[in-house]
Write a structure and sequence with these properties.
Layout (H helix, E strand, L loop, with lengths): L1 H8 L3 H12 L2 H31 L8 E3 L3 H5 L7 H4 L2 H18 L4 H25 L3 E3 L9 H9 L9 H20 L3 H5 L1 H17 L5 H14 L6 H10 L7 H23 L6 H8 L6
Helix pairs in contact: 1-6, 2-6, 3-7, 6-7, 6-9, 7-9, 9-11, 9-12, 12-14
Length: 300
């Protein structure tokens, strides 16, 4: 149980390599992995670099707008570089989950049906990139982040991330998808209690990733509300309202004074509720997010 929990929530190169190796043993999962890679390259990296290049070198009037989405609450959240390891684990986290699911399916001899479930996990990850990009393609967003290069991870962040895709936060969306799909699959497979108990640590790590985005100043509190709304609209069965509200309450914000924590939690929930209310009156799920972005001054 302890080793399994560590594999799922601790970022180690050996765990990541083990997960890649397990995927490589299944042809159908290799195909699914390439679908995810293609989705990320097209809808995250490619799209973001294209817009950054256009804004840097061309003066066309039809450029994709980029809105600043910081709030006064973000200013009182301390910058904590130590959280960068957790922040950067948002991709390797779900990859380790896939590796764990493959091993579990093999150990329990669950057969091709279980591999199909894992392929569905991969397809969902790819679909989330496409879902979020529906907003990015119309209006991108950014936040104020310190020009901090104190360790290798921040050097990589500043080199490869133009920082134009804040709303909705893919970090939070993928973290939510990872723990909800893990719990869903574990419930479907109906394995022993020890395996079911792993859903708690997995959810805890997803929460830690989601709050880390604030401490490394890569996102605003607005980005969390937007990500929750986007995930609810993406799949309300996996992320129902009761879980969304509990998710907000459980966000680990320990280094922030208690009264400020309360304000942050209340703000995230109220903004989420506002997006939900606005979304009820629109046939387009992304309309509330685009309306919000259009009300914020362009960042540059």
């Amino acid at each position: 149980m302890q080793k399994s929990s560590e594999f799922l929530v601790v970022s180690k190169s050996s765990y990541l390599l083990a997960s890649f190796g397990r995927v490589a043993c299944h042809t159908s999962l290799i195909a699914g992995a390439f679908v995810v890679i293609a989705a990320a390259l097209k809808n995250f990296f490619g799209l973001q670099y294209k817009v950054a290049f256009q804004r840097r070198f061309f003066k066309a009037t039809n450029k994709v707008p980029v809105s600043a989405v910081d709030t006064s609450l973000d200013e009182v959240i301390p910058f904590r570089p130590a959280y960068v390891q957790t922040y950067m684990d948002f991709t390797t986290f779900w990859i380790r989950i896939v590796g764990f699911l493959i091993k579990t399916a093999s150990d329990k001899r669950l057969g091709s049906a279980a591999i199909k479930d894992i392929r569905g996990f991969l397809n969902t990850i790819a679909a989330i990139y496409l879902h979020a990009a529906e907003v990015y393609r119309v209006n991108m967003s950014t936040t104020k982040r310190p020009a901090y290069y104190g360790n290798f991870q921040f050097v990589v962040i500043h080199l490869v991330d133009p920082h134009l895709m804040c709303i909705p936060s893919l970090h939070v969306m993928l973290a939510i998808a990872s723990y909800t799909m893990f719990a869903d699959i574990m419930g479907k497979w109906r394995q022993d209690e020890a395996l079911h108990a792993l859903s708690g640590p997995v959810r805890g790590h997803a929460l830690a990733i989601s709050s880390s985005i604030l401490f490394v100043k890569q996102h605003s509190v607005n980005c969390i509300s937007a990500a929750m709304y986007a995930m609810y609209k993406f799949n309300a069965r996996l992320f129902p309202l009761n879980e969304a509200y509990q998710f907000v309450k459980d966000l680990p914000l320990g280094e922030i004074p208690g009264e400020i924590q309360t304000k942050i939690i209340e703000y995230i929930r109220k903004k989420f509720d506002l997006f939900l209310k606005q979304g009820e009156n629109s046939g387009d799920w992304k309309a509330p997010l685009l309306d919000f972005l259009s009300q914020n001054d362009p960042s540059f």
